[in-house]
Every structure is written in structure tokens, then in C-alpha cells.
Amino acid sequence: SKDWNGVDQVMLRNPQGASARVSLHGGQVTSWRNEHGEELLFTSSKAIFKPPKAIRGGIPICFPLFGNGGSLEQHGFARNKIWAIDDNPPPLHPNDSHGKSFIDLILRPSEEDLKCWPHSFEFRLRVSLATDGDLNLISRVRNVNCKPFSFSFAYHTYFSVSDISEVRIEGLETLDYLDNLCQRERFTEQGNAITFESEVDRVYLSAPNAIAILDHEKKRTYVIRKDGLPDIVVWNPWDKKSKSMGDFGDEEYKQMVCVDAAAIVRPITLKPGEEWTGRVQLKVVPSSFCSDH
Ligand code: BG6
């Protein structure tokens, strides 16, 4: 089907009625619903579905840069581009076949991209919806150039929550983080789960491979499992920054939290011919499940 701007999008469904929607704009997942039809990802009511602007919500792919610096736009160009469907992707490991509902996309740099980032690459993204409703994203970046290059990366995931002040993140306790609100100064998280009462914009270093977002009010827990992605970004713009973003509602910060599986602090370097893989698995479970098991 097409989105509001005529860009192709692909629907994935599983037999239980869960679904995911992937737009060729950004190779971006723009919806993920459980078997009851409840939306699990946040998208702003003010989101602009028009390239070259990224869609505010879902799972933008930040590549080849997370953050800003040099001649690249903030969070890189991948999220602003129209990706292609990859009809014949190189085989993935058998463990990466999560059922039949998947789509393979590919991004190659345009002439214009090569002007600000002169490295030829092939970026393959597989999005799959498992029979149990889990959402799996696998990114493969290959260096098809004759020189090495380095990049940073994030699955900038906007989770839908009922009330940010009732949300806790578990799994990042005692880790070091860089605080974007203090010139990326390094701090150490204390022993408690992360809660929100003001703007948060951090990169947690060397996070464990599974972390959880607990939505107390919805009695829902998101579990993020990651592989090849050492860092975790946690972002909530809170009230003041929300007002400064044209494609974000003033009060919408209450209904979202970004928790990104990422590779930022130590960029990935690929030699010619080398390939990197970064995987994330998103699962949603009733909160009682977590405390009982
Ligand atoms: C976060 C950054 O991850 O993304 C923030 O750390 C930034 O500083 C936010 O504001 C949103 O970025 P953008 O480019 O999508 O507005």
C-alpha cells in the first residue's frame, strides 16, 4: 500500500493478528501492533511523512551517524531516504528466520550521499514479525568500497507508553553513560531503575543484551534484546524541548520514550568487503509475566 505521500509501505501480519508496517521512507517501521490490535510504537500526531524529512515516530534508522558532526545531517541520511525492496538478499543465518512474515529492504548511497560521506556501502534491513508477535530487525552493512570506513548506528525506537512518569527502565543500573544535556560528560548510574521527571538524553555504555521498559499503568513490559549493539540511548524531550520541535505535540512527551539499541561510543569500522550485523528483538509481555517468571 501507499502512505499519505504516495510512498510504498509493507504490512506484515501473523496468524494471531499481530501486525507491523514498514515504510520505504527511511526503511522505517511505523507501526507494531499486538494480537489485540494495540499500537506499541509511538508516532507523533504532527509527524511529517515527506522525504527528505524523517518521520517522527516508529523506528528511524540512524546511519551512518548517530548524533551530529562533520558534513552529515543529524542522525545520518538513512532515515530520510527512500529504500528499495531487496528481492534477492544474501542468506541470513537460519536462527534469523523468525517465521514467514518478513520484508527485506536495501539502501545504497546516492551521488549526493557520497558527496557528504564518500563511502560505498550496501545496507540491508530485514524486518520480521514472529509467530509470537515479536518484532525483529536485522541490519547488515557491507563495505563495497576500496577503503575502510567507520560509522555509528541506532534503532531510534519510539515506544508508546501510557504515562512517562509511571515508566521504569531496568537493566541500565550501575552503568556509565554520556549525558547529552551536559556536553556528553560521563556519569555513573546509581543502583535504581531509571525513572523520568525531566528531560533525559543519554547514551549508556556497554549495556546488557536484554533490558526492559515497564509501563506500570498499562501493566505492560517491553523487552529489548540486542546483538552487535553495545550501547543504549534513552531519550525523552520533556516539556520545553517538545515545544521546540515542529513535528511533535507539546504534550506528546508523556506518551513516549525512546530506547535505542545502538553502536555509538566505539564506532564500527569495516574493511573493504567486510560486513557488520546489528540485531534487535522487541517483545511485549504483560507485567505480571515478568515478576512471576
Ligand atoms: C536523540 C538525541 O536520540 O534524538 C537527541 O540524543 C535528539 O539529542 C533526538 O533531540 C531527536 O533527534 P531528531 O533529529 O530526530 O529530532
From TrEMBL:
UniProt keyword Isomerase, yes or no: yes
Gene Ontology annotations for the cellular component aspect, listed alphabetically: cytoplasm
User: What residues does substrate bind to?
Assistant: R56, Q74, R79
Q: Which InterPro entries does the record associate with it?
A: Aldose_1/G6P_1-epimerase, G6P_1-epimerase, Gal_mutarotase_sf_dom, GH-type_carb-bd
| EC number of this enzyme | 5.1.3.15
Q: What Pfam families is this protein classified in? A: Aldose_epim
Q: Which Gene3D superfamilies match?
A: 2.70.98.10
Keywords, sorted A to Z: Isomerase
Domain of life, per lineage: Eukaryota
- Does the record's keyword annotation contain Cell division? no
Offer one example of a GO biological process linked to this entry: carbohydrate metabolic process
Which reaction does this chain catalyze?
alpha-D-glucose 6-phosphate = beta-D-glucose 6-phosphate
Q: What's the family?
A: Belongs to the glucose-6-phosphate 1-epimerase family.
User: What protein name applies here?
Assistant: glucose-6-phosphate 1-epimerase
